[in-house]
């Protein structure tokens, strides 16, 4: 009789690292999602203190079933910010990394990851299709940024947002213009509306006008159509840019608050708010520029700083989602959960099918043997 025993197959390991970038308080996986992944047969290793920025102590990860230890040798490592060279050196060859990798940026770490033998999936590259909505980390984090941008604007404003009728008289509502109405812009419009502001949205993609109106805002029509691929705007021609800037310059002067969210992937942020437009705004007005990390939409923006120019406060906060780490981490964690589950086969093994359009688009480095 054969008394030999089969060796149980090792469970795939997922490593959750502690973010080291200045100001980054998010964590890639929260305990609730850790419990779900463990229930699917994965082992989760969490770096000590990984969740402290998001107010999640190690003890909660232990209660969720995770091990507190070294996550860098895991089969799959998840993080938020792009890895540093020192972090890439900690990854084992043949492992997989998932996170924001800034693949379109000139200073990305794609070559270094490839040289280290690491298979990498960039969450920014996940296609914006219906099936991938739950994995869309760009959208989940942009929602946070759009909300917080309005909170920043209200805090810096010298005026009320809502209309108030008091014994001393009636205060008119603040007028709020949002430039760029993707996910962040729509959330900004909705939040400003909830605070009582009179809201208007503008985008070079006229097909989003109905979305602007759906959150109770007016549509600013400048007669320019720059719809591009993948839900993004294309770069404007020189003539279109000049036409847009002049029309915007005239319009901006009539608003109390301007929030800008316009981005073009892989390129510097388009300049939408000129110095002349700022100079024409009423003293005490506010500009919140969410495009500071790629140069800013406002000509007078100083990325990462709050400055006053011509009596107008110009704020350019960087990485706003990290300032709301609890909910931002929860949302991002659900995005990653969906990506990881897509990578599992029927037996619970990590076996990504790169014939799947989502994984194929997200994968920015890949072992030749897997090709």
From TrEMBL:
Domain spans labelled Alanine dehydrogenase/pyridine nucleotide transhydrogenase NAD(H)-binding: 154-316
Key word Repeat present: no
InterPro entries: AlaDH/PNT_N, AlaDH/PNT_NAD(H)-bd, NAD(P)-bd_dom_sf
Statement: the UniProt record of this protein carries the keyword Nucleotide-binding: yes
UniProt keyword list: NAD, NADP, Nucleotide-binding, Translocase
EC annotation from Swiss-Prot or TrEMBL: 7.1.1.1
Any Pfam family the entry gives: AlaDh_PNT_N
Summary of the function given for this chain in its UniProt record: The transhydrogenation between NADH and NADP is coupled to respiration and ATP hydrolysis and functions as a proton pump across the membrane.
Protein name as it appears in the record: proton-translocating NAD(P)(+) transhydrogenase
Organism from which the protein derives: Rhodococcus gannanensis
């Amino acid at each position: 009789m054969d008394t030999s025993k089969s060796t149980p197959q090792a469970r795939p390991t997922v490593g959750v690292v502690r973010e080291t970038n200045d100001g980054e308080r998010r964590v890639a996986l929260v305990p609730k999602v850790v419990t779900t992944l463990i229930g699917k047969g994965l082992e989760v290793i969490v770096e000590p203190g990984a969740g402290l920025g998001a107010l999640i102590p190690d003890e909660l990860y232990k209660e969720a079933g995770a091990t507190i230890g070294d996550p860098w040798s895991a089969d799959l490592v998840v993080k938020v910010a792009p890895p540093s060279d020192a972090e890439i050196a900690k990854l084992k060859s043949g492992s997989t990394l998932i996170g924001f990798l800034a693949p379109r940026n000139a200073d990305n770490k794609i070559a270094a990851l490839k040289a280290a033998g690491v298979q990498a999936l960039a969450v920014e590259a996940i296609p914006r299709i219906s099936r991938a909505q739950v994995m869309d980390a760009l959208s989940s984090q942009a929602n946070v940024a759009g909300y917080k941008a309005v909170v920043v604007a209200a805090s810096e404003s010298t005026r009320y947002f809502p209309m108030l009728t008091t014994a001393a008289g009636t205060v008119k509502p603040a007028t709020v213009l949002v430039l760029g109405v993707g996910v962040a812009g729509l959330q900004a419009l909705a939040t400003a509306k909830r605070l009582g502001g009179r809201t208007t949205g503008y985008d070079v993609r006229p097909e989003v006008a109905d979305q602007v109106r759906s959150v109770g805002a007016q549509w600013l029509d400048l007669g320019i159509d720059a719809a591009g691929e993948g839900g993004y705007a294309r770069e404007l021609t020189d003539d279109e840019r000049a036409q847009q800037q002049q029309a915007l310059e005239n319009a901006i002067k009539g608003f109390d608050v301007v929030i800008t969210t316009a981005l073009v992937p892989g390129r510097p942020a388009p300049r939408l708010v000129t110095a002349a437009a700022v100079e024409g705004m009423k003293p005490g007005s506010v500009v919140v520029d969410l495009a500071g990390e790629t140069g800013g939409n406002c000509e007078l923006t100083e990325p990462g700083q709050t400055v006053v120019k011509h009596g107008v406060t110009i704020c350019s906060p960087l990485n706003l989602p990290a300032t709301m780490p609890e909910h931002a981490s929860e949302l991002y964690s659900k995005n990653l959960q969906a990506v990881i589950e897509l990578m599992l086969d029927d037996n619970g093994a990590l076996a990504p099918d790169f014939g799947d359009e989502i994984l194929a688009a997200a994968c920015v480095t890949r072992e030749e043997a897997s090709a």
